[in-house]
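okkk here we go again. third time trying to get the LHBTZVTM bound version out, last two times i messed up the smiles copy paste (missing a bracket lol). double checked this time i swear
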Amino acid sequence: MTELPTLDHPPADVETDDCLPSYSYLYSPSLLSGRVAFITGGGSGIGFRIAEIFMRHGCDTVIVSRNLQRLSQAAEKLQVATGRRCLPLQGDVRQPESLIAAVDETLRTFSRVDILVNNAAGNFLCPASALSFNAFKTVIDIDTGGTFNASKIVFEKFFQNHGGVIVNISATLSYKGQILQVHAGSAKAAIDAMTKHLAVEWGPSRVRVNCLAPGPISGTEGIRRLAAPDVASVLSSSIPLQRMGNKTEIAHGALFLASPLASYMTGTTLVMDGGSWLTSPNQLAASMELWASKTKETK
Ligand SMILES: CC/C=C\C/C=C\C/C=C\C/C=C\C/C=C\C/C=C\C=C\C(=O)SCCNC(=O)CCNC(=O)[C@H](O)C(C)(C)COP(=O)(O)OP(=O)(O)OC[C@H]1O[C@@H](n2cnc3c(N)ncnc32)[C@H](O)[C@@H]1OP(=O)(O)O
Ligand SMILES: NC(=O)C1=CN([C@@H]2O[C@H](COP(=O)(O)OP(=O)(O)OC[C@H]3O[C@@H](n4cnc5c(N)ncnc54)[C@H](OP(=O)(O)O)[C@@H]3O)[C@@H](O)[C@H]2O)C=CC1
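finally!!
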């Protein structure tokens, strides 16, 4: 029998916000040929890798967030590594006017937009009792409000008449009421619900709307903010697949949902977490200690 890697073997990844030094294709390199994707939060972490993997499959991208300097550096790296175009645009997903300007600029530049990835988010550890009203609202506004704002604007400006695909990024936090996460867990659960509502309303306009819920993903701001330093070893024993995921794996999930491979999928949430939420304990005492130590660090 020929020795092959097991089918849960992760693709290569790099921990930093840099492109992969090399890439082995699993799908056709022309899977998204001629397409244009608008990716919120595409200048860092998971959003950056989604942009890279889409571009490696023939797509041009627009990456949108608040920090234009970081976006411009990211766009340069992405273009050099993939040979596709990447347009960096400043925008705050809480401010519809800034997204309207970004979508207008996208259409002026590329004359089309085929894919919207709602990836921008904000998060931190905080118990509900210590969370200010404004802190709760801020995360809801970025995650849930931002997803609605971008979806509505892209729909009205292009998808309504041409069809398109929306890939929302949520999380499994609400599935078992993750401690210290009432703000993000509520915001992401609302995104799962919004995915279904918009899939139903916009299906007749040939718009597919799906969601991807990652588990703990290495080399991300999410892990740096939410997890303990020894997270990798702790999670190895509690996750069925015995490891954290990587950004390339999540990007491959987004690529699948965005592509014609998922042509009959809409209104679903694809969980990509190695089975994590099924088995990882919701550690109340340890999480409170982690929050206290992180709070002390920032004081
Ligand atoms: C899930 C783990 C839970 C527990 C851990 C236990 C065990 C760990 C084991 C396993 C888990 C392992 C991994 C996690 C698995 C999955 C992760 C799931 C989801 C990840 C989701 C993510 O979104 S990650 C993305 C992270 N990236 C970012 O957040 C970048 C963007 N962020 C920001 O811009 C800011 O942080 C912001 C969100 C605060 C927004 O900035 P801005 O608009 O400038 O807002 P401010 O004016 O600064 O603040 C607004 C109000 O918010 C209050 N605030 C801000 N920071 C905090 C904080 N750290 N704690 C409490 N409150 C905060 C601020 O004070 C303002 O409120 P006021 O009342 O003062 O006005
Ligand atoms: N990391 C993980 O393990 C997990 C992550 N996720 C989800 O994956 C996605 C990416 O997370 P991750 O890569 O870890 O984190 P990042 O912090 O790298 O990504 C978040 C991005 O959102 C942008 N952003 C934040 N606020 C706004 C805003 N108001 N307007 C526009 N853009 C904004 C940030 O850019 P800028 O600061 O320039 O605005 C940043 O690029 C998020 O949706 C997160 O919830 C879900 C589960 C697990």
